[in-house]
Amino acid sequence: IELAATLPVVGQEGADDAFAGSAVVRIGEARFVVPEDTPPSPEDVRVTWKGRAQHVLRVAGGPGSSLEIGVAIDVSESVADERSAFSRTATAAANRLLGVGDRVFRVDFGRTARFLGAAHDGAESLFTASPVGRPEKTAIFDGLGFALGKFEQRADRRALIVFTDGCETTGRSGLREVERAARSQAIPVFVILADGQPCRRLVERTTV
Are the CB atoms for 73 and 90 separated by under 8 Å? Predict the structure, then answer.
């Protein structure tokens, strides 16, 4: 199945100014990231199967559609000084993005990953919880794989937000496994680094 989307870009002039993209779907889902406040419609999306156009009944997504956010927080010793900032930022993001009925959940990771719970409102209580233990090492990719498995898959829109310093010091998984899992579920992953610079060990590992 091949999908293509063409959506006008808000605030730009000219008839040719538009978002456009296409994707070939063999299994799972395909998602387009479109300009903010641009609601998609069935007329914006073309679906073909074996070269034949298919009728589009519904396009899920856009402002007002259901949202599920996963938040994965690095709680290893290397980011001990950043935990409060991580929690504040996660709380602010959840309160700004979530609407009625939307879901947010929290996963903490160090050497191991732990599911701390989910909320549909009242994100403050979820992100002010104290992390359990003080792991010495960090398995980032193991933690992200664990977090991706906690999505309920019911919302039209899903995203994983990761707070870390980028220092991968242990773990069994790698970037490719996490990327494959995220792509198969059509979940974008956004990484917020503690100091704006990735740890060298993570850079070396992910650029091979």
Answer: yes
Amino acid at 116: L
The CA-atom distances, in angstroms, between 33 and each of 46, 153, 181, 189 are 16, 18, 18, 12
**Residue 145 CB neighbours (<10 A):** 21
In this prediction, residues 64-74 reach a mean pLDDT of: 89
Largest CA distance in the chain: 57
Q: How many other β-carbons are positioned within 10 Å of the β-carbon of residue 76?
A: 25
Q: What gap in Å lies between CA 195 and CA 145, rounded to an integer? A: 23
Name the token pair of 84: 């409060």
Tell which residue, 78, 70, 156, has the closest CA to residue 108. Answer: 70
Residue with tokens 């609407």: 99
Q: Which residue has the higher pLDDT, 11 or 57?
A: 57
CA distances from 100 to 105, 129, 182, 189, 202 (A): 15, 23, 25, 23, 37
Identify the residue whose tokens are 């003080």.
134
Coil, strand or helix: which one is 84? helix
What digits encode the pLDDT tens for the residues 140-160?
Answer: 899 999 999 999 978 888 899
